[in-house]
């Protein structure tokens, strides 16, 4: 995605821990997905009411529809605790989900030997803000999708393997 000016702008936002604005998400959607015919999985989109409206309009213009919306259901405190054990390589960008808190310690990336650090947007203060923004803007969308009968409520507190199985079964039920 970084090859286009829009893609570069997208990376500028996420690499500095900022939320990607609606207008940019939607322009990327139109630019990248215009020729997609087989189906698309979005990760972390839509996050706002404006994005939902734009996605609905875009789908309608293509006679498309949403098969399902996967909701990774997990209490905020649990999500915050898990984030502490997530790190990213400062050189190659590889993400590690080891459960080890790397802050204040020296760990090396297994791929490139770069230093591991907590992701910028996983820092405690930014995380607190992200959880607030989520409650404010994203959580209200759940009732919309639940009302449309497309919400797939996944218990994300389970071990990873069980979460994967539950997602696979939920997807199978809608495609
Ligand atoms: Zn690395």
Please specify the SSE layout and strand pairing.
Elements: H1 5-15, H2 22-33, H3 49-61, E1 69-73, H4 76-83, E2 86-89, E3 95-97, E4 116-117, H5 124-138, H6 140-147, E5 151-155, H7 160-172
Parallel strand pairs: 1-5
Antiparallel strand pairs: 2-3, 2-4
Helix pairs in contact: 1-2, 2-3
The protein binds zinc ion.
Average pLDDT level: 88
Largest sheet: 3 strands, antiparallel
What's the shape?
globular
Q: What topology, given as strand order, has the largest sheet?
A: 3-2-4
Question: How many helical elements?
Answer: 7
Q: Given this structure, which CATH class of the largest domain is correct?
A: Alpha Beta
Written as H for each helix and E for each strand, in order along the chain, the element string is HHHEHEEEHHEH
Which range best describes the helical content: under 10%, 10-25%, 25-40%, 40-55%, 55-70% or over 70%?
40-55%
Question: Are there runs of 5+ residues with pLDDT below 50, and where?
Answer: none
Distance between the termini: 27 Å
Structural class based on helices, strands and sheet pairing:
mainly alpha
Query: Which hetero ligands occur in this complex?
Result: zinc ion
CATH topology of the largest domain: Rossmann fold
Number of strands: 5
- Radius of gyration, rounded? 18 Å
Beta-sheet strand percentage? 5-15%
CATH architecture of the largest domain, by name, is 3-Layer(aba) Sandwich
The CATH H-level homologous superfamily of the largest domain: P-loop containing nucleotide triphosphate hydrolases
State the domain count: 2
